[in-house]
Structure formats: structure tokens, C-alpha cells
Amino acid sequence: MSGRQVDRGRLADVVLAAVVGALGTAVAAFDDGTTALDHALVALASAALAFHRAAPRAVLAVATALGTAYVVHAHPGPLSALPVLGAVHTAARVGHRGVAAAGGAVFLAGYVATGPGTQHVAERAGLLAGWFLCAVVTGLADRNWQAYLRQTEQRALEAERTREEAALRRAGEERLRIARELHDSLTHSISIVKLQAGVAVHLARKRGDEVSPALLAIQEASGEAMRELRSALQVLRADEPTGTPALLVERARAAGLTVDLAVTGDERPLPRAVDLAAYRIVQEALTNAARHAGPAKVRVRIDYGKGNTGAPVGELAIDVDDDGAADPDRPPVPGTGLTGMRERVSALGGTLSAAPRAEGGFAVRARLPLVEAV
Q: What pLDDT is stored for residue 302 in this prediction?
């Protein structure tokens, strides 16, 4: 919350206390027999409302005590309940329903016990009881509305974050796809041209023939094309992770997801492609858990070989499980994220399974060989 918002909230509290105090004092001035003590009680009970944000229960206790003392001493009309009504509403607004109801009941008891005339007091007490009930209900309604607004804002922020992550992931996957296509098609073709030109030049020189300038140009141009293509592939494949799986887990926890991380085996630096794939698999699995699993607990296990998952040496095992709402009888339709994850693992010669668990929830199982894909 910014300093300006704090200042506005404080000003609103002071204005509330001043308005309630002015109304209470004006009503007390028209009652016969009102003393300076009565005015002091009304003023103090109203002034306490200025601190309802910091200590709602303390404010309710002070307002109830002073308000009850006022009605016991002066026997005023129903408007004397204004400070207590304000305190009851603010206490209920922050969730103290029982305390708010108890404060209203104490004030009503004091009002009924000291009022003159049974019928008259009963009518006024019924009116005040309705007011206090409205104060509690409106306080709870305001609390629920504020909670709804906060939840809506959090969902909007989470949706924006996941959209950005999905866009970045799709862009990275598209770059890798283009890089693979270039490597599989152009690199192969240009290599053949360069090789054939080199063989032709070698044979011509071996026979003592003059090498054609066009052949030399083809050899030089094909070599230059290979170098430029390698540079372009390096740029396309520059999709380094922005952190580690452990950092992803910390981010998920900060976003409200319950996540446990376990790393077993001989932890060591991974080949670049495997390290990137492991990062993206954990990222996608945690993103899907946050979006679809509901209030679930997620377990992330990374095994570098001969750990709890039983992965052999030379293989990285990644298991991400949740106990969320996934149903094995209704498997989800693979989206872009799962499809990209599967393609990434397949390109490295690994295996991937992503499906609901028999006991409920969802499980991602990835096995990656610890060698660079050629």
C-alpha cells in the first residue's frame, strides 16, 4: 500500500469519527439533563473510531464501554448507539463476528436495563437490535466483497504472468524448431556442396589441371555459408533458462502453491540441452499445477542417477506429482505446453509421460539421457 493510500485511509477514519461525534453531541445536547460527563463519554466513544483499522476489537471494547456508561447515566434515545454501531460494523468487517455481536448485545443490555417504561424501552431496543444486526451484516458483506476484489486481482495477475510465460515458451520452442529444420535441411545440403567442391579442387590439383575460378568461388562461398549458418543456429538456440528448478519452486511457493522439492543422486552440471529441457519441464508442470490442480500439494523430484526414483547413472529423472483434481477417467487434452514438452524430450532421446494418477492428481515423468543430442 502506498503512502498516499495510507494517508487517505487515516483521513477517512478521522472524518468518520468527527461525523459520528458531531451527531452524537448534537443529539445529546437536546436531551434534558445531559451533563459534561455525558458529552465526554460521547466524544471519547466517537473518537475511538479513528483507530478502528489498527485495533478493531479494542475500539469496539472502548466504544461499547463508554456508550453503555452513557446510556446508563443519561438514558438517551436510540441515536446514542451511533459510536457503538460504527465499532460493531468495523469489527465485523475484518471478521470478528462474535466480538461484534457481543458488543452490540452488551450495549442493548445496558440500554434495556436502564430505560424508563417497559413498552417504550422494548420498542427502542427492538429498533436498536435491528440496527446492530444491519451493522454486522453490512460489515460481513463488505469483508466478502473486499476478499472477492483481492482474489479477482490475484487471478488477473496470475493470468497475465502465465500468458507471458506461455508466449515466451512458445517463442523459444519455435526458435528450436526452426533451428532443427535448418540443421536437418540446409546444413546437410550446404555441407554436401562444400564437400563436393573441395573434392573437385583436390582432384584438379592432383592431376595438375588449372582449378576453375568458379569452383574455387563455390568452395569459398559454401564455407562462408556454413559459418554463417552455424552462427544463426547458435542465435536460434540461445534459449537459456532464466534460473534453476529450485528457483522455479521458490517462485511457485511465493505465488501460493504448496511445493516440495527433493534432489537425489550425484548432482552435477548438465549438458546445455538437458539443463534447458529439465528447466522447461519443471516450469510447465508447475504452471499446469497452479492453473488446473486447485488447492493441491505438488512434489518435485530430480534424480541424477541411483537416487529415490531408481534412475540409472547417465539418466536424469524428473518427477512432478500433485494431488489435485485430475481424474484418470477424464484425461486432459494435451495442449501446447505438454506437446512442446514431449517434443523437447523426444529430441534428446528421452521419454515422457504426463497423465492423471490412479489415486487422483496429475503426474509428469521425464527421463533424459545425460548426453547432448547431435
A: 93
